[in-house]
Amino acid sequence: MSEFTVRGTRVAVVGGAASGVAAARLLVERGAGVTLTDLRPALDAAAELSAIGVSLALGSHPEGLLTGSDLVVISPGVPFDQPAVAAARAAGVPIIGEVELASRWLRGRVVAITGTKGKSTTTALTGRMLEAAGVRVLVGGNIGTPLASHVALSTAETVHVVEVSSFQLETTDTFHPWIAALLNLTADHLDRHATVEEYAAAKARIFARQTDRDISVANADDARALAMAAAGRARVVRFARDAHIDAGITVAGGWIVERGPAGDTRLVQTSAVRLVGPHLLADVLAAAAIARAVGAGCEAVAGASASFAGLEHAMELVDEIRGVRFVNDSKATNIDAARQAIETFGRGLVVIMGGRFKGGDLRLLRPALASRGASVVAIGESAPLMQDAFDGAADVTMAASMAEAVRTAVAAASPGGSVLLAPACASFDMFEDYAARGRAFKAEVAALRREVTGGEGARTGECEP
């Protein structure tokens, strides 16, 4: 098969966030004539892009730009039914995403990780395990560093550990992971995908190009995820926190073990894992399954797991003020992730929740809230939905800002209790992204500490709800 080339072609890049900027850079390096278009009137990277020869079309998508291009590369935030994109599709213009584009030029093998929740934690920890094993690894994708930024650094020995979302997967065509992991599947992004089935179909594309020489990693505690992996051609490696499995990565006798015909090989003591909550323990199992499939030794898996304190905005202990813990789980952007965060805590819980609703049934959170006597501080566009959904299960108070939410929550909390940011929603009504929301929460907690203690610094550490 001939090498993919864009030399001398006209390429339109739609979306000027990190992945679009990285794609534009890569395309220019590969000899394309590139125009980047974004509905925003200004971009932080505008001067840099202009300096390398990228034409900019900002504030609108000019008529004929996409339909007159040889290739369109769209960012994850741009849906297929966006009018200019839909017109280009109807005109027969090839449309791909940045992950698909970059993967066509990678020299190393790809480990791709997806799922409704846990992707970032699993991706980061897998990278740590492989680094500890001496593997030349690059970590990126949806976790922060666009895959297009890896191309120049890619060698035949490189293992690219890539977090991929449903938005990125739905724009793939030839994307071929050596190892593809599906962590779980619950309803999410129903504001973008018409149905749960459409969302699942996008996720299933992670397995589409695999062969019998490849490996899929799947959660045996999630029947749908396991079935999707088993429907592919790759060899399936299972992990399970709760279900019994005869082979794979699981928990037994206080250890994470690798189970096989010869018995259990101990990898990591569960007491050594610093991540909080059973749902994050499942991420450690997944990372161990992937790392072992790549060839990492037991020592590398154990050492990386014991030293990994987790990611910012994922069950992150921010502070403890007068006996009340403040925990930032801003990455809990869907209902199931919020439920698992809530279930990590006991009584005395106040949950800050809300934002731009992505679809699903908020009433599924009622049992977790009611059994803990939890109260809710609702923010953002979905606050009225929270009031309706939780009526009779939890007291709900509305707050107009993060500052008001934190102060309302601490007023409702009692010593020994916790204030948890677990939004169950996207952030885009009030914040640029989930990270900005998490930083705002932490800033308000820091301000609260200054008010309460007269300027004493925050105390952070491991969270043990």
Keywords:
single chain, 465 residues, alpha/beta, Rossmann fold, UDP-N-acetylmuramoyl-L-alanine:D-glutamate ligase, Protein-Tyrosine Phosphatase, Chain A, 3 domains, six-stranded mixed beta sheet, 15 helices, 20 strands, globular, disordered C terminus
How would you describe this protein?
The termini are far apart. The chain is built from 15 helices and 20 strands. Strand 17, helix 12 and strand 18 form a beta-alpha-beta unit. The strands form three sheets. Strands 7-8-6-9-10-11-12-13-14 form a nine-stranded mixed beta sheet, with helices on both faces. The protein is of the alpha/beta class. Helices cover 32% and strands 22% of the residues. The chain folds into three domains: 84 residues, Rossmann fold; 208 residues, Mur-like, catalytic domain (UDP-N-acetylmuramoyl-L-alanine:D-glutamate ligase, 3-Layer(aba) Sandwich); 138 residues, Mur ligase, C-terminal domain (Protein-Tyrosine Phosphatase, Chain A). Helix 5 packs across helix 9, helix 5 crosses helix 10 and helix 14 packs across helix 15. The C terminus is likely disordered.
